[in-house]
Design brief:
The protein has about 260 residues and is an alpha/beta fold. The chain contains ten helices and nine strands. It has a single domain, classed as 2-enoyl-CoA Hydratase, Chain A, domain 1 (Alpha-Beta Complex). It is about 50% helix and about 15% strand.
């Protein structure tokens, strides 16, 4: 895809720094089918962009990304065969982020939940605004954390702590996330841009081959984990897409009530 083909992700340039902005602010940048398809290609397209050396990922408005759009979830329940394409795209997103040699910096300007959390954590360096929360509440929607959470949380926190948060869906504040090593930096909102773009420009002015290939070397470890885990976790997520508990969670979200799960 060309830059002009993107509808839900804006491209903004400042020197050699390219900012990708998830652009559905009225829905807190919740991911619908169109955005998911665009996320599956945008990192490869940004990697191939000749006019940038560093990429910043952020969200428009008050949120970074609220996770999956509930209407899109209902469509996947009604047409479970459509989730097969979602599974393919989910793997494309993760592998494209890991394959991208340009540094990826997360500017977490607001809540980063579900897939939004995964997108943030797969970036190379993360800056999160105080007042925002981050978490992977797949289980609260009756689904397996299959789109990358089962890869990146254990890699960052270790298996025991990762399972605690993935099995509960509990969210963390910026300071909590920084203290336990889930993100790099918790910053005051008014300092977010200075910190993010100061760091981005520092990398853009550095020894780019050394920086890129250092990232490539470190990411070999994450790629090995991803290739071991991703197919299984996304397959389990596809199974839970068909579950009664997932439908109940979607219904409860729409009705603004607590879901009543039955375990199937």
């Amino acid at each position: 895809m060309k830059e002009s083909d993107y509808e839900t992700i804006r491209w903004r340039r400042d020197g050699r720094v390219l900012t990708l902005i998830m652009n559905r602010p009225d829905s807190y940048n919740a991911v619908n089918a169109r955005m998911h398809t665009e996320l599956a290609t945008v990192f490869r397209d940004a990697e191939a962009d000749p006019d940038s050396d560093v990429i910043v990922l952020t969200g428009d408005g008050k949120a970074f990304c609220a996770g999956g759009d509930v209407s899109w979830m209902q469509d996947a329940i009604d047409r479970p065969e459509s989730f097969e394409q979602t599974c393919v795209e989910a793997k494309q997103i993760i592998y494209a982020m890991l394959d991208c040699e340009k540094p990826l910096i997360a500017r977490i300007n607001g809540h980063a939940m579900g897939l939004g959390c995964t997108l943030a954590l797969f970036c190379d360096v993360t800056f999160m605004s105080r007042g925002a929360k981050i978490g992977d509440p797949h289980v609260l929607m009756g689904m397996v954390a299959g789109d990358g959470g089962a890869i990146i949380w254990p890699a960052l926190l270790g298996p025991q702590r990762a399972k605690e948060f993935l099995m509960t869906g509990d969210a963390l504040t910026a300071d909590q996330a920084a203290d336990m090593g889930l993100i790099n930096h918790a910053v005051d909102p008014e300092q977010l841009d200075d910190r993010v773009y100061g760091f981005a420009n520092r990398l853009a002015g550095g020894a780019l081959q050394s920086i890129r290939w250092t990232k490539v070397s470190v990411n070999i470890y994450l790629k090995q984990i991803a290739h071991s885990v991703m197919d299984t976790s996304i397959a389990y997520e596809a199974l839970t897409n068909r579950s009664a508990d997932h439908q109940e969670a979607v219904n409860a979200f729409r009705e603004k009530r607590k879901p009543v799960f039955i375990g199937r």
